[in-house]
Amino acid sequence: MMSWRERLEVLPSEQRILVEGGSLSQRFSKRPLTLTHPAIIGGFYGFLVSMALLLPYGYENGWTQDTIRDLAFLSVLLMLILAITGHFSLIIAQILKRPPISLRRDLVYPMPFIGLTILSVMLVTGLESEMSEDISTWVRYIGWILLLTPGPVYVHLSWAPRWRLLCRLEEGLDPFEGEMPSKSVTGTLENGEDSDMEMAIEDIEDDPPLLHVADGEE
To answer: pLDDT of 165-179, one tens digit each?
Structure first.
C-alpha cells in the first residue's frame, strides 16, 4: 500500500508545495497522522504554554502544594480548551474544504514570547502594584492573548486544513477532491503508449512507404 508521501509525488508542484507547507508543518507531517491530529497539536501547545508559566507562576505564589495543584489544574484546563479548539478547527476545515494558509513567521512567532514576557513581568516584579486595577487587568489580558493566540490560529488556518489533505492522500484520494490516480495505473498507461509507438516504428521499418516514381526516372 502506498503512503501519502508516495502519492504526493503524483501531484503537480504547486499542489505539492501547498500540501507539504512550511518547516513547522513538515516537522509535524513526519509523524504518523494519528499522532498529529489538530486536537493533539492544540493540546500540545497548551502543554507548552503551561510549562512556560511554571517558573513565573511558582515564583509569585511560592513553591507550595497549593501552587503546584493550581498550576496543574491550569495546565489541564489550557490543554483541554486548546484541544477542543483544534478539533473544532478540523470540523470547520472539513465543512468548508478550504486550502491551508501559510502564516507570516515574523508576526506569529514572536507573539507567544512577547505575551510570556508581559505575564512574567506582571507576576515577578512589583510593576502591577504601581498600575491602576483596570490597566493591570488589560495588560494581563493582552499578555494572555499574545501567549495563547498563535497556537490556535496556526492550527485553524494552516494545520487543520493541511491534515485533512494528508488524510485524503493517505486514503488514496485526491486531496483536492476526486480520485487519485495510482502509480501502477499511470505506469501501465505510459508503458502501453511506449509499446504502441515501438510497434509503429517497427512497421515503418519492415514495410517502408513507396515513393512516387515519375516517368523517365529509374
So the answer is: 888 888 777 777 644
Residue 133 lies in a domain: yes
The total number of structural domains in the chain stands at 1
The pLDDT tens digits of the residues spanning 132-172 come to: 888 888 998 999 999 999 999 999 999 999 999 888 888 77
Sign of CA dihedral 91, 94, 98, 102: positive
Length of the chain: 218
pLDDT digits (tens, 9 = 90+) for 22-55: 888 888 888 888 899 999 999 999 999 999 988 8
CB 27 within 8 A of CB 154: no
* 8 Å CB contact between 150 and 108: yes
| Structural domain includes residue 62 | yes
| Distance, CA of 165 to CA of 125 (rounded, Å) | 47
Indicate yes or no: pTM above 0.70: yes
**5 domain residue, yes or no:** no
For residue 113, what are the domain limits? 11-170
CA proximity to 151, closest of 109, 96, 119: 109
Residue appearing with cell numbers 515519375? 214
Q: Per the domain annotation, does 99 fall within a domain?
A: yes
Q: By the 8 A CB rule, do 49 and 112 touch?
A: yes
